[in-house]
Design the sequence.
């Protein structure tokens, strides 16, 4: 089956830079911008999570509606409303033909902790029934579907760091097969101390004495459709996927699957490696991953050295980290944002420059602990 | 047009540690629902589940060892995956072959991690714990299977609660039909844990007795655990190898009712849309459908909405289309349920035998279907549906057919 052409019609996001795409663009334009990090946990020092400190649903969701939603659902709903707004009201498609594809690493953890707190510290009979449905990872996407009355496919992909990129790729597949006319695709992650502590114990979280990743809170939504609409930002032109058989939570050492995923994405987009105009780096602060990415890009691109932007080490890692990179790629090829952030040291040392001019194409590679790779290619419409 | 054939099935359920034992005992009308012993149920409203007792893990012969910290959910997935590959007469190692792995993600390593969470909540930050946290992410069973079987193709974990592995099978078949891969392993694995046991009890969705799907006396579901992995293979690839298929995946449908987080839209109109989408995707006529493996959780709302949907689709002909649920025998295995039911549906087509609805005895006017009571019976459906519904309103339907 030949894939249909899929357009990025609009975007929305909530990140540690603030609520909305404009806040993200403002942060990207400031070379010195850094989020305030930290999430409190009981009986122990805080851990590095790039949280959405100023997030509010005010002016976006009625208070009674917002109260019914847990925080991940509120984050996704606000990002989705921003993406839906430019498409018009009513939407140009029946709502039964509008789907949701969301990636997540950890949605549901807060609710899970509340239920287990009741089970262990009170009694199983005290488990809160209102919280239990929010423990499933697909709760934010489902609640968005209920809120906006969206009857198309409503799917969630829990694949750690590549969940957001997977959701975007799978949205393209469903659009190509005609299951929806519009898909709100992206990711949502929540900030919860238990998650952060798990990765701290696995020694992959950044501390004062150890390099590593920062976890993200937030949501990113790209409105994807086969019809371009009045002002498409970009074309999601290609996607690819491969994996390295690696134990859970460990990163592979072989760059070949990441290279293969990127090649598949470029091939589907009809682009040669030398035509890549921008790379949204996968770098998240973990040293082994940096080396793997450098080798993968050198293998893929040969002597070609397109500009590189690294955002995950600032905005945070997670399914939403990948989706935010795809969103930034869409804005970059649309010419509506220019990232002033430096390329990561491991790629700068290999000759990859910082982003300067508007580009026509962007590569967004992704790699999850456990070895799964997903790559996207976005091009100018 | 490429065809996606089911050429291997691995099953691990409360009725048995493999496909054949599960199938034989299911047809005999036995149930795996009994006293839950995995953890202490004192303080819970109910005490039964379809638990897998013997996890004497048959992991010898895997290309790579899973190591010390493999969780129940990953263990189930590995056992089912190894059985499926052997059944399809494929090598145990996928190295260099690009096979896809598409899995419905459930609670993964949560049962093991709950021990840490309890100690941490009671004891503070000095609580020890590391190994039991490695498989907390929901894609851990997929990662573990891919690692142990050296799988290098696309690896997808879909998390839509109780419809997860139905969509996983549909997605894998689509990857095969689209020519992206020649072989995919697809299905799901889920393990019992205190979170889901307490949660479903808090919703009063669990029957204190074994579940009775479609029955007038039904009072809720019985939770279960298990795994099913299916080998989905491109037809020419299978023909070249001379392997006999169970069934063909003709298509699938997936929609959302956008109604409520835990209750289906009661008229069945939304579920009807899913069935019709699946039928259209499969390119078959409604009149060809000869059997439905229903979601049939045995909750009041699910079973009546589900049967209402089938009535809207099939009208008076529904009386001639048997609808059975395996959840009275195997429990509701949540994110593994759809994969298990797809496997059972494929076996029903291949062996011309319809599985019974164990626990069903008294008809309910709100569920006016032929529920195949008692034991399995002969039936030769050319086309069958496997249907799932999930928290959040997601419904999905697979269309399986007899291979020509």
Sequence:
């Amino acid at each position: 089956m030949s894939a249909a052409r899929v357009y990025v019609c609009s975007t929305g996001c909530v990140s540690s830079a603030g609520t909305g795409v404009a806040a993200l663009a403002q942060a990207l334009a400031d070379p010195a911008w850094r989020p305030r990090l930290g999430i409190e946990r009981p009986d122990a020092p805080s851990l590095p999570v790039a949280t959405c400190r100023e997030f509010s649903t005010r002016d976006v969701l009625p208070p009674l509606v917002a109260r019914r939603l847990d925080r991940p659902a509120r984050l996704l709903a606000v990002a989705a409303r921003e993406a839906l707004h430019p498409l018009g009201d009513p939407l140009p498609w029946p709502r039964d033909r509008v789907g949701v594809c969301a990636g997540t690493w950890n949605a549901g953890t807060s609710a899970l902790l509340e239920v287990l707190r009741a089970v262990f510290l009170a009694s199983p009979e005290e488990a809160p029934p209102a919280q239990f449905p929010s423990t499933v990872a697909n709760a934010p996407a489902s609640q968005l579907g209920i809120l906006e009355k969206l009857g198309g496919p409503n799917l969630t992909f829990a694949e750690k760091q590549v969940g957001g990129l997977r959701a975007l790729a799978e949205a393209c597949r469903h659009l190509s097969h005609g299951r929806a006319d519009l898909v709100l695709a992206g990711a949502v992650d929540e900030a919860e101390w238990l998650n952060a502590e798990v990765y701290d114990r696995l020694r992959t979280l950044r501390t004062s004495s150890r390099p590593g990743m920062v976890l993200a809170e937030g949501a990113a939504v790209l409105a994807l459709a086969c019809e371009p609409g009045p002002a498409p930002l970009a074309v999601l032109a290609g996607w690819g996927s491969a994996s390295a058989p690696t134990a859970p939570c460990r990163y592979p050492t072989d760059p070949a699957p990441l290279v293969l995923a990127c090649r598949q994405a470029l091939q589907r987009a009809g682009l040669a490696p030398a035509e890549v105009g921008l790379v949204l780096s996968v770098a998240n602060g973990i040293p082994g991953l940096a080396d793997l990415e450098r080798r993968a890009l050198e293998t893929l691109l040969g002597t070609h050295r397109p500009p590189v932007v690294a955002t995950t080490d600032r905005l945070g890692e997670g399914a939403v980290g990948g989706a935010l990179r795809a969103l930034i790629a869409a804005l970059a090829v649309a010419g509506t944002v220019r990232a002033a952030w430096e390329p990561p040291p491991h790629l700068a040392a290999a000759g990859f420059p910082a982003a300067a001019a508007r580009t026509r194409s962007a590569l967004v590679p992704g790699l999850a602990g456990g070895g799964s790779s997903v790559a996207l290619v976005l091009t100018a419409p | 047009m490429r065809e996606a054939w089911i050429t291997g099935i691995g099953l691990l359920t409360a009725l048995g540690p493999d496909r054949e034992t599960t199938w034989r005992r299911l047809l005999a009308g036995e149930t795996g629902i009994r006293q839950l012993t995995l953890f202490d149920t004192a303080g819970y409203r109910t005490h039964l589940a379809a638990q897998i007792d013997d996890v004497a893990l048959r992991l010898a012969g895997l290309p790579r060892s899973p190591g010390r910290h493999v969780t129940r959910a990953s263990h189930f997935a590995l056992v089912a995956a190894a059985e499926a590959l052997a059944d399809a007469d494929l090598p145990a190692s996928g190295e260099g072959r690009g096979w896809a792995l598409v899995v419905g993600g459930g609670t993964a390593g949560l049962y093991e991690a709950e021990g840490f969470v309890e100690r941490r909540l009671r004891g503070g930050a000095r609580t020890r714990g590391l190994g039991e946290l490695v498989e907390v992410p929901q894609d851990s069973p997929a990662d573990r299977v891919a690692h142990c079987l050296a799988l290098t193709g696309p690896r997808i974990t879909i998390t839509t609660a109780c419809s997860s592995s139905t969509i996983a099978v549909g997605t894998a078949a689509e990857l095969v039909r689209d020519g992206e891969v020649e072989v995919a392993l697809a299905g799901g694995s889920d393990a019992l844990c205190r979170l889901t046991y307490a949660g479903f009890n808090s919703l009063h969705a669990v029957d204190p007795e074994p579940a009775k799907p479609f029955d007038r006396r039904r009072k809720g579901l019985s939770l279960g655990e298990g795994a099913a992995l299916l080998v989905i293979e491109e037809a020419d690839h299978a023909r070249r190898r001379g392997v006999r298929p169970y069934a063909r995946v003709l298509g699938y449908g997936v929609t959302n009712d956008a109604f409520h987080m835990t209750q289906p839209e009661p008229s069945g109109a939304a579920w009807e849309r899913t069935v019709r989408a699946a039928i259209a995707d499969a390119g078959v006529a409604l009149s060809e459908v000869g059997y439905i493996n229903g979601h049939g959780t045995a909750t009041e709302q699910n079973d009546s909405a589900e049967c209402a949907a089938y009535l809207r689709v099939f009208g008076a002909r529904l009386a001639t289309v048997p609808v059975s649920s395996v959840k009275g025998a195997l429990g509701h295995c949540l994110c593994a349920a759809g994969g298990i039911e797809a496997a059972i549906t494929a076996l029903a087509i291949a062996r011309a035998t319809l599985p019974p609805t164990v626990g069903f005895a008294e008809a309910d006017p709100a569920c006016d279907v032929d529920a195949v009571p008692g034991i399995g019976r002969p039936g030769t459906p050319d086309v069958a549906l496997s249907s799932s519904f999930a928290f959040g309103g997601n419904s999905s339907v697979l269309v399986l057919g007899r291979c020509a």
